[in-house]
Amino acid sequence: MKKKTFFLLSIVAIVCISLILYSRIYTITEDRGQLESKIIQFINRPIITVKKIDIKQELNIDNKKYIIFIDNNNTLGNAELTKGLNNKYKIESTGGGNSCFYEEIYKTNKGKYLIMKGKNPDIKISYVKETVDNKEYKISIPSQEFYMAYCAVPNGTQSVYSDPNKIKFYNKNGRDITQEISKALLK
Asked: Which residue would you say has higher pLDDT here, 80 or 179?
């Protein structure tokens, strides 16, 4: 009887400790101010490089949240967060740089997605065609300055990053504007 009681108490203690640790990892809510603050803290490890960010777009897919933002250096950045069982998030990664366009294949708890994130100069981009693992995908781009758009890709897709030479931008008339957009994004 003592062994069963000890075993049950041990299981309860392990579960309680696990829940406490879990709740310390997944702490971020949907609050925009808290999101910005936590992303800034994450970026500034170990050196402070960003003082302020302005979230431009959020995209929720399955158990993930994707964010694009502009920082105080006027640089486009992005973040990937994972939702926990407590409906709060933890930051998986952040990135940024000179580019005004990001594309990557992300894995969620339900599948893989090709996600386009970026700035739409003068709202000229209507859709993008991209080839990944020899399959072409067409993704409609919203008519707004900053966007995030996506499409599902097969779970067997091997590529994580696409080949920039296989991305084509099109306007609403179906005209290839890749060269024009490339120049505008480099400004």
From this structure: 80
The length of the chain, given as a count of residues: 187
Locate 69 and state its tokens: 């933002």
Indicate if the pLDDT at residue 23 is higher than 60.
no
Specify the pLDDT at position 183: 72
Angle (CA) 34 98 175, round 5°: 105
Number of Cβ within 10 Å of residue 30's Cβ equals 12
Q: Is 133 helix (H, G, I), strand (E, B) or coil?
A: coil
Short-list 65, 62, 26, CA closest to 155: 62
pLDDT digits (tens, 9 = 90+) for 150-163: 999 999 887 766 66
Find the radius of gyration of the CA atoms of the chain.
21
CB 65 within 8 A of CB 99: no
Instruction: Quote the pTM value.
Output: 0.86
- In angstroms, the Cα distances linking 69 to 26, 30, 38, 54 are 21, 15, 13, 5
Q: Compute the average pLDDT of residues 57-69.
A: 96
User: Are the C-beta atoms of residues 131 and 139 closer than 8 Å to each other?
Assistant: no
d(CA 10, CA 159): 44
Q: Which of 3, 77, 87 is nearest to 36 (CA)?
A: 77
**Distances 120 to 68, 87, 89, 116 between C-alpha atoms, Å:** 13, 32, 28, 11
